[in-house]
Amino acid sequence: MKLYLISLAAGLLVGVIYGVLNVRSPAPPVIALVGLLGILIGEQIVPLARGALVRQPITTSLPKQGETRTTTDLSETRRPQDRTG
């Protein structure tokens, strides 16, 4: 969640700077959002294709009906290069 807030804050800061300098955004907002959507979809296609090649079942992060979600230690879900100490 922290990364989302940082990303939002950075975007707001850039927007304010653009407004103060009276500079238009490099791309029309709708085109920029469609491009971002394409990036997000593209990121999801690669794992799906890899899973299909090795015949792994497709999983989702949504809880099953009646299942409760609990918070856990996420340190084991991080990539080895991102782990500290």
Shape assignment = elongated
Helical proportion? 40-55%
What is the element string, with H for helices and E for strands? HH
Largest sheet: none
Count of alpha/pi helices: 2
- Provide the residue-averaged pLDDT: 75
Beta-strand residue percentage: under 5%
Number of strands: 0
N- to C-terminal separation? 22 Å
Look at the helices and sheets and give the structural class: mainly alpha
Give the radius of gyration. Answer: 19 Å
Low-confidence stretches: none
Task: Write a concise synopsis of the structure shown.
By secondary structure, the chain is an all-alpha fold. 53% of the residues lie in helices and 0% in strands.
Describe the structure.
This protein has a domain at 27-55. Helix content is 53%, strand content 0%. The protein has two helices and no strands. By secondary structure, it is mainly alpha-helical. Residues 75-85 have a biased composition (Basic and acidic residues). Keywords: Membrane, Transmembrane, Transmembrane helix.
Pick out its properties:
mainly alpha; elongated; 53% helix; 85 residues
Question: Which helices and strands, and how do they pair?
Answer:
Blueprint: H1 2-21, H2 29-53
